[in-house]
């Protein structure tokens, strides 16, 4: 068996790992490169292996940095099955067409303002191509071991990162390999903790998004209670830029709990993001896979005003009474939240609460680091609103939580490969695994190929 690293090396995006077993090629994750330009350009390069020669894709979870290249791979000749859990497919149904739509928007924008070197600029794939790709998905239950090709078995194990997320155990007669996917938190408010893998894999491929960091221990209930009460007292609006999948549902649940305890007044809550609304519906349909009951999901649903159309979204900006607006994107890098920021950020009475990881270079990162003005759609807005950062609500385990999960393996593996981290974070994770667990470990290079014996 051979393992080649086609992505997720030196960056947190573009996760793709190729397993060659006998004459079969299997791709674990098929992520889009995101972030800085040099990395994004890889989405446009020729794929390192012939996509038509790949037998199947196995998907750890729905986030685009793990799934977003699938429609492009199909365009270039891949036609095999794509295996994942049911909830992962439900989320891909939302995320992939949206990604295609955004690719088309970008191409249209580039053509209109003529800033692309390519004439005309083309999308990586279209919304229609993304919808078509969903026909190749095949769902499996957690813990259901199935034979993908003769002699090679796969099992999805819950790993608590987002709905449907899995660590993959791949077994042949002579070799076991564990892919962590993205690992969740030990004590998340709504997701179950990552399940221990009671096996001894020969090889482990582990993520390192937070390889060099521990999460802050801010109590999200306490922070939101204080911020909401203070802002209401001043007659302001609380704006929460949030990730559509996962964090939005957590924030809605916390607000619901605070209201039930009468810790905050019963002010209206608006969810202004069609994608977050769809993700909340999927979240409620799969209530058996997280900590909330069907009834709690129903209460969140009932207590939230869903804003679907652009007209409703524009009308929201005219609201003069205290309210909570949750809107994507989570780092304020695009989406409807920008329109709210433009209206709200220059008034002292309002508050903006960022939730989870804020990538360098985003507006969320600038604002949580004390920026005094922010540029939106070509114009600068002074920041007078109070700005907060709830980092403790991240969907990624920090290095300490990942070490705890790894340490539950029955024996150390022969080798651990650290991936899916920026270079500094990946190397810090390597040192933690080497020093704290005493395991053999290294950080592989892009396109490196290793033989697994
Ligand atoms: Zn993820």
Textual characterization of the structure:
With 453 residues, this protein is of the alpha/beta class. The chain folds into two domains: 2-213 and 395-451, 4-Layer Sandwich (Metallo-beta-lactamase, Chain A), CATH 3.60.15; 220-393, Rossmann fold (3-Layer(aba) Sandwich), CATH 3.40.50. It is built from 14 helices and 22 strands. The chain has helices at 37-40, 64-67, 70-75, 86-113, 127-133, 220-233, 247-260, 274-285, 294-302, 310-316, 337-344, 363-368, 399-406, 423-437, and strands at 2-5, 17-21, 24-28, 56-58, 82-85, 137-140, 146-149, 152-158, 166-171, 176-179, 203-207, 237-241, 269-272, 305-306, 323-327, 351-355, 373-376, 379-382, 386-390, 415-419, 441-442, 449-451. The protein has a seven-stranded mixed β-sheet. β7 and β8 (152-158) form a beta hairpin. α4 (86-113) runs antiparallel to α8, α7 (247-260) packs across α9 and α8 runs antiparallel to α9. The protein is globular and about 65 Å long. It binds zinc ion (ZN). Zinc ion is lined by residues 61, 63, 161, 182. Residues 61, 63, 161, 182 line the site of zinc ion. GO terms for molecular function: hydrolase activity; RNA endonuclease activity. Residues 248-367 form the Beta-Casp domain. InterPro entries: Beta_Casp (IPR022712), MBL (IPR050698), Metallo-B-lactamas (IPR001279), RibonucZ/Hydroxyglut_hydro (IPR036866), RMMBL (IPR011108). Residues 13-243 form the Metallo-beta-lactamase domain. This is MBL fold metallo-hydrolase.
């Amino acid at each position: 068996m051979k393992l080649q690293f086609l992505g997720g090396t030196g960056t947190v995006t573009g996760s793709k790992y190729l397993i060659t077993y006998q004459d079969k090629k299997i791709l674990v994750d098929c992520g889009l490169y995101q972030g800085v330009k040099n990395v994004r350009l890889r989405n446009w390069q020729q794929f390192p292996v012939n996509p038509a020669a790949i037998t199947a894709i196995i998907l750890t979870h729905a986030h685009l940095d793990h799934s977003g290249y699938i429609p492009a791979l199909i365009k270039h000749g891949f036609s095999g099955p794509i295996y994942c859990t049911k909830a992962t497919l439900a989320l891909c149904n939302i995320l992939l067409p949206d990604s295609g739509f955004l690719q088309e928007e970008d191409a249209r924008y580039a053509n209109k303002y003529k800033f692309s070197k390519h004439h005309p600029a083309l999308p990586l794939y279209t919304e229609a191509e993304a919808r078509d790709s969903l026909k190749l998905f095949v769902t499996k239950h957690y813990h259901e071991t199935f034979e993908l090709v003769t002699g090679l078995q796969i099992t999805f194990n819950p790993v608590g990162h987002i709905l449907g997320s899995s660590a993959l155990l791949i077994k042949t007669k002579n070799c076991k390999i564990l892919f962590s996917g993205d690992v969740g938190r030990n004590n998340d408010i709504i997701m179950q903790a990552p399940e221990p893998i009671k096996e001894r894999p020969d090889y482990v491929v582990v993520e390192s998004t937070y390889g060099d960091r521990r999460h802050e221990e801010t109590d999200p209930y306490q922070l939101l209670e204080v911020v909401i009460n203070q802002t209401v007292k001043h007659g302001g609006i609380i704006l929460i830029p949030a990730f559509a999948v996962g964090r939005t549902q957590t924030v809605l649940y916390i607000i619901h709990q605070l209201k039930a305890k009468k810790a905050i007044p019963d002010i209206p809550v608006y969810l202004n993001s069609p994608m977050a609304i769809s993700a909340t519906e999927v979240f409620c349909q799969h209530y058996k896979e997280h900590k909330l009951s069907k009834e709690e999901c129903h209460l969140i649903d009932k207590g939230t005003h869903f804003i679907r159309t652009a007209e409703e979204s524009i009308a929201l900006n005219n609201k003069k009474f205290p309210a909570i607006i949750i809107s994507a994107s989570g780092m304020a890098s695009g989406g409807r939240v920008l329109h709210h920021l433009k209206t709200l950020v220059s008034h002292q009475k309002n508050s903006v609460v960022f939730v989870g990881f804020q990538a360098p270079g985003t507006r969320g990162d600038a604002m949580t680091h004390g920026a005094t003005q922010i540029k939106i759609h070509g114009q600068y807005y002074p920041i007078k609103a109070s700005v907060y950062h709830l980092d403790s609500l991240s969907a990624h385990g920090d290095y300490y939580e990942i070490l705890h999960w790894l340490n539950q393996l029955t024996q150390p593996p022969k080798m651990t490969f650290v991936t899916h981290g920026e270079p500094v974070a990946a190397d810090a994770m390597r040192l933690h695994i080497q020093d704290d667990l005493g395991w053999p470990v290294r950080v592989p290079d892009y396109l490196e190929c290793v033989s697994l014996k």
